[in-house]
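Reopening: Phytanoyl-CoA dioxygenase still failing for me.
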Amino acid sequence: MNIDQESVTTLEDLRGDLAQRYKWTPTGGSSVERAVVQDDMAALARDGYVIWENLLSADQCREIREVLRPLLGHTGRNSFEGRRTQRIYSVLSRTRACDRLVDNPRVLAVLDRLLMPNYLLSALQAINIQPGESAQLAHHDDGFYPVPRPREPLAAATIWAIDDFTADNGATVVIPGSHRWGKRRPGPDDPTRPVVMPAGSCVFFVGTLWHGGGANTSATDRLAVTAQYCQPWLRPMEAFTLSVSRDIAREVSDDIRRMLGYSIHPPFVGAVDGLHPLRLLGIEED
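Support: Ran it again with your exact input. Result attached.
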């Protein structure tokens, strides 16, 4: 529908981009083979998570580790953040070293099918679990949205192993199949699984899956980066349009820029002064 030539007469008309010009384009996930994505979606439907091993090279992990280590400081403010866990928030505002984790094609291919178009990046954090940390409270990542379960996930997350994930160094612990639960919480008899995977690997899970950081009973740290995503009509955990400068928004990929909020969810969610937010960056359409 051309808004300039036709009237908006039905609710269906509001599904178009009333801000005009900057249309939705396919994400980098379109490059992933259909059969691969189908297998990933089947694993998510069955277990609530899928593990992809060795997506990053040893050199890439080393670069990320070298960039993030100097930024690690205070440990958590409470037991959920972790008294012996260091966190870096708003990683996008600090370094470009983790950009390819955020817009990895394998991740985007699944998000394209799991969430609505124009989904948002909700958080990008580095998490370093130190020796002596206790197990984190089990939770599901979209639990702070007050929508009763059972339901479809409102969000999804990745956790990238920058160091090896082992059963004793704080590997994320998941409860397979718990994404389908209703109101009930995990109990002592529910089977759990530590996500053991080598550095460079990634675990992707839906926002309704119960999980938590594991206890670190080893003598070494366990560094990870987590990128979390949410439906385009929800408020993200991190306010990236405030923490990420416009200069950085111009520098990142089209996919990341869209996920930061420089996008329109039809008909006009995300508009700035009634116009598309990309105009703030001086970016013209091709």
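The chain has seven helices and nine strands. If you still see a failure, please send the error message rather than a screenshot.
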